[in-house]
Design goal:
Layout lengths: L1 H23 L10 E3 L2 E5 L6 E4 H4 E8 L13 E5 L2 E6 L4 E5 L5 E5 L14 E5 L4 E6 L4 E5 L5 E6 L6 E6 L2 E5 L8 E7 L4 E7 L15 E4 L2 E4 L6 E6 L2 E9 L21 H17 L3 E3 L4 E2 L3 E8 L2 E8 L4 E9 L9 E6 L2 E6 L1 H14 L2 H10 L1 H10 L9 E7 L3
Parallel strand pairs: 2-20, 3-25
Antiparallel strand pairs: 1-2, 4-28, 5-6, 6-7, 7-8, 9-10, 10-11, 11-12, 13-14, 14-15, 15-16, 17-18, 18-19, 19-20, 21-23, 22-23, 23-24, 24-25, 26-27, 27-28
């Protein structure tokens, strides 16, 4: 009897040990099995595993690109980022401009044509790269127009719209897709148009409670191969659009952190409320989402052959999720640092061709080296440099750097995980 009890205790302790090993080896990760929800592939994301991530954990190589700074190309913040034909297109909301850089960071052109005159836009609500014409198109809710520019930044023409939208994209060479963002004037969130901007199809009726409830997001659309990926606010489903067809592709399951079904009914019927009451109700809902730590998908979705990338809010945290399509393993982080010795913030942007595009801020890089100089003597500095191979690269970037210089892109070659 004592032998049997001893064996049971041994196996019990062994099981606990294996569980602990498994838990310790999966920091920031969720190993998950394939599953489907309503016929589309689902990824379970456990936000309890979110934490600080360092570049060596996910990256095997870093390519540094210093974006050229001129008086015309100053970028205080990267609001929207796109990659096309070895060019980087960056929207700067404060300057109301789109800045284009070559693959090595050299300034190519700037679109900064805001105003009220002919051919001028008031605001850049959204912009796209028209891959069928190699042009840039800007959607402006202020003038209700689409403005077209060539790849030298020259204005080509504009066309009048009869509707309001938050995001748009070309479905093919002859049509557009627009996302209305719960705008209360419409009954639907997604509509297709021809090139004359005449509506040809409407999809996704707006929930009555959410009419007029909109949140600014980087983008609702992402082009991957021949498909357009689409997601709208407060939905955890990513759809694929192709020639006016709409099919669910992926589901993101946040488990206990999902926004509960029927949650937005607390807003009431917006048609029976004043504008002030609607605004206060929406503020109350957003505060409750934050307090309950419900996850709110932020539409910044992108995909490559081997990875999926998106960002979401969890309480007061802004999280990034990177998923391996080979192993179905998500890595979740609410903060990314350069490495354990170099506590420099790294800001993720998107996945493109299996590379993770991120950036660092020049003023933060300068502050890091200023702190080093104040804290280390010469011997300590030399030892630190010898033990961190990437420090030399950062020191080269820091040489002659100004606090107001443009961002430094870090293009990461990802490890398998």
């Amino acid at each position: 009897m004592k032998t049997m009890i001893g064996k049971r205790i041994f196996y019990y302790l062994l099981l606990l040990f294996l569980i602990c090993i498994d838990g310790c080896s999966n920091n920031n990760k969720n190993n998950i099995k394939n599953k489907t929800i309503n016929g589309n592939k689902a990824y379970y994301v456990n936000v309890d595993n979110s934490g600080i991530l360092t570049l060596p954990e996910i990256s095997s190589d870093i390519n540094y690109i210093k974006l050229q700074t001129t008086s015309k190309s100053l970028i205080n913040y990267i609001d929207k980022f796109k990659v096309y034909t070895d060019r980087f297109f960056i929207y700067n909301a404060k300057a109301k401009s789109i800045v284009c850089f070559t693959h090595n960071g050299k300034l190519e052109f700037v679109i900064n044509n805001h105003g009220r005159g002919p051919g001028q836009y008031m605001v850049i609500t959204d912009y796209i790269i028209n891959i069928y014409e190699n042009t840039i198109e800007i959607f402006d809710n202020g003038t209700s127009k689409i403005f077209k520019y060539d790849f030298r930044g020259n204005f080509i023409n504009s066309k009048k719209c009869i509707f309001f939208a938050e995001n748009f994209i070309k479905d093919d060479s002859l049509s557009y897709v627009f996302y209305a963002g719960n705008y209360s004037r419409y009954d639907y969130n997604l509509f297709f148009t021809n090139n004359n901007l005449e509506i040809t199809k409407k999809v996704f009726p707006i929930d009555k409670e959410l009419a007029g409830f909109s949140i600014d997001n980087p983008t609702s659309f992402y082009l991957y191969k021949d498909d357009i990926y689409f997601n709208y606010i407060f939905s955890n489903i990513i759809y694929v659009l192709n020639k006016q067809s709409v099919k669910p592709k992926y589901s993101i399951d946040f488990g206990k952190n999902n926004i509960p079904a029927g949650f937005f009914k607390i807003l009431g019927d917006p048609q029976k409320l004043s504008a002030y009451e609607r605004m206060m109700g929406q503020r109350k809902v957003m505060k409750l989402i934050s307090e309950k730590k419900y996850c709110s998908f932020q539409n910044n979705f992108s995909e490559s052959d081997n990875y999926i990338f998106f960002q979401f809010n969890n309480g007061n945290k802004f999280c990034t999720c990177l998923i391996s399509k080979e192993t179905n393993t998500p890595i979740i982080s609410d903060k990314i640092l350069f490495n354990t010795d170099i506590e420099l913030n790294v800001y993720p942007l998107a996945i493109y061709n299996d590379k993770l595009f991120t950036y660092i801020q020049p003023f933060e890089l300068k502050k890091f080296f200023d702190n080093m100089e104040n804290s280390f003597n010469e011997d300590q500095m030399n030892e630190f440099i010898s033990n961190n191979k990437e420090v030399k690269n950062l020191m080269k970037l820091n040489s002659g750097l100004n606090n107001l210089d443009n961002q430094i892109l870090l293009i990461l070659t990802l490890k398998k995980f």
